[in-house]
Amino acid sequence: MNKKIISLFFIFVASIWLLASCAGAAPAENFAMEEVEAPMAFEETMGEAAPAAPLAEAEALDAPSGGGGVITEVGNTLPIAARDNRLIIKNAEMNLLVEDSETAIDLTTQVVTDVGGYIISSRVWYEEWGETSYKHSTITMGVPVEEFERALRRLRELAIRVLDENASGEDVTDQFVDLQSQLENLEATRDRIRTFLDQAQTVEEALAVNEELSKVEGEIETIQGQINYLADRAAFSTITVTITPDLPELPTPTPFPTSTPEAWKPGETLGEATKTLQRTYQGFVELLIWLVVVFIPVIAPFVLVGWLVWFVVKKATTKKQGKETKREE
Description:
Strand content: 15-25%
Number of strands: 7
Shape: elongated
Strand order of the largest sheet: 4-5-7-3-6
Oligomer: single chain
């Protein structure tokens, strides 16, 4: 009996894993029917009742939303950014030219509070312009998707001019539906494994079943985390705002003055020439005064002595030459 239970258990696990891999790639309208047929097939094998797979996801996707709605998962209802039952992750980037960056930062924070959002990150830096430092900032915020357009409108009103704006959306509906399909299949597998755990009669059987149960529960947690992440990202849009101050114009540097030719003034030229001639004659007179007063008294004795020496020597030489001439005669 024990061997039969274990064999049927492993056959069941292999069937469910094969079904889960097929359901991940199946369209949204088919995965619910596959989920229902799998427990029925197992019911025929085991000879006991099996729970029917929930159809909440298929019903939620087929139901009209009127421009917005929800996508449901087992036991939960997740609000999303949906239009025509599409799961859209919205993002926007803005560059605002403002008159006063300090005031603009405070008002941006106020906008986030008013729309029920939160600040994801904030950065502030300063740049030199002329002789003054001006404050710049980048703020990344998360806002509820239903307040996305209102938040953008409020932020535009803070600017003198919007220098740049870019909005985008990412459709993750197919990924979300695939994850929900995998989650439901894994939850059904988990429930069936638990019945085998109740039927285990030995410790070895219980350990083997419990090991498989842990693996399935681990995958359920991973997929549930991915579903929650997509739902949260779609429920809150991301807006990144760059605040740029309006910089004043720098003063134009003063050009060097150009020289203009002066008008000819012959009267001034004559006056300057007269002054120059006067200074020249004054120079000559001053030179004569220096010669008479200083140079002649100082130099004259030496000149006189030199002249006397020269005269005596010359006279003696002349006499000598005269005597020699007479002798020759």
